[in-house]
Specification:
The chain is an alpha/beta fold and 293 residues long. Helix content is 38%, strand content 15%. It has two domains: 183 residues, 3-Layer(aba) Sandwich (Rossmann fold), CATH 3.40.50; 96 residues, UDP-galactose 4-epimerase, domain 1 (Alpha-Beta Complex). The strands form three sheets. Strands 3-2-1-4-5-6-10 form a seven-stranded parallel β-sheet, sandwiched between helices. It has a two-stranded parallel ribbon with strand order 7-9. It has a two-stranded antiparallel ribbon with strand order 8-11. The radius of gyration is 19 Å and the shape is globular.
């Protein structure tokens, strides 16, 4: 009998990628999302994924199907007013519905660590300093609680800076450089970038690492960049535009990064090279596309 999975947030880049990979591995997959664009549901259906129209802020979790695994890949950065309704209350209701019936892979964020100059590992204390970071850390603790109470297992995959040719921090920086606009006030802030393909690969493989009590794994690039270093590397490949910051130096204390050691140990190093992440963004910009197209 096929293992059954629910991917909550299946219309997003990570969610769709996870759902597609699970189908390829032989899972029976349902993908839940609002599907405000019906063509996204059609695309999932064409890939062998059962689309389910579900709004995490108002839907009834009892109507969701019985499954063995729940992959939580839902957030909406365009709606800051829904940070807590989505990340805590809505996701919490879904987790409560499946507690004791399924295990969880929670797509989370390194923002749970807060801004700091070092690279925290998964055992470092979490001190989120934004409302988004606090909501995601609270989400982790709520999942931990339901696992403790029910016996379910879980893993928190703490994401950092996924990139495709047309989305992510590299794309945003490249477009800003082309326009000659400021990249902000923190040229020395440290960061790590990674390909969306590696986000998806790590998330799918994380299913093999669910535990009780739940564990966490940082999902991020191995190389450490300062914002200026990354901007200069992008600029060199673009061959046009200008790297502009509001000050010449500073901002290391505003770094948001994490130690990828556990990820590398469990799942291997990222498959997509850093140079490839930059080159494919530059190729699409030179082809006339922008992130808003």
């Amino acid at each position: 009998m096929k293992e059954r999975a629910l991917v909550l947030g299946a219309s997003g880049k990570v969610g769709e990628g996870v759902a597609s990979s699970l189908v390829a591995e032989g899972w029976q997959v349902s993908g839940a999302a609002r599907f405000s664009k019906p063509e996204k549901a059609d695309r999932l259906r064409d890939k062998g994924i059962e689309p389910l129209v579900y709004d995490v802020t108002s839907g009834d979790p009892a109507l969701l199907p019985e499954v063995d695994a729940v992959f939580l890949e839902i957030w909406d950065p365009s709606r800051p007013d829904l940070i807590w309704p989505i990340n805590f209350y809505g996701v919490g209701r879904v987790v409560e519905r499946y507690a004791g019936r399924a295990n969880f892979v929670n797509g989370c964020t390194i923002n749970v660590y807060g801004e700091r100059p070092d690279a925290p590992d998964e055992d470092a204390p979490c001190r989120p300093n934004t409302d988004y970071g606090r909501s995601r850390y609270s989400q982790e603790r709520l999942i931990d609680y339901f696992c403790h109470r029910s016996g379910s297992k879980a893993i928190h995959v703490r994401y950092a800076h996924a990139n495709t040719a047309d989305s992510g921090i590299i794309r945003r920086m490249a477009e800003t450089i082309v326009r000659g606009e400021s990249l902000g006030a923190n040229p020395d802030a440290k960061m790590r970038v990674i390909g969306m393909e590696d986000f998806v690969r790590v998330t799918v493989n994380a299913w093999q690492r669910v535990a009780n009590p739940p564990v966490a794994v940082n999902c991020c690039g191995v190389r450490v960049w300062t914002q200026r270093e990354l901007a200069e590397a992008i600029h060199a490949r673009l061959g046009r535009g200008q790297v502009v910051f509001d000050r010449d130096a500073g901002g290391e204390e505003h770094s948001v990064q994490a130690d990828p050691g556990r990820m590398v140990s469990w799942f291997g190093e990222p498959a997509v090279a850093q140079e490839t992440l930059i080159d494919r963004v530059v190729a699409t910009i030179d082809g006339g596309h922008t992130q808003d197209d």
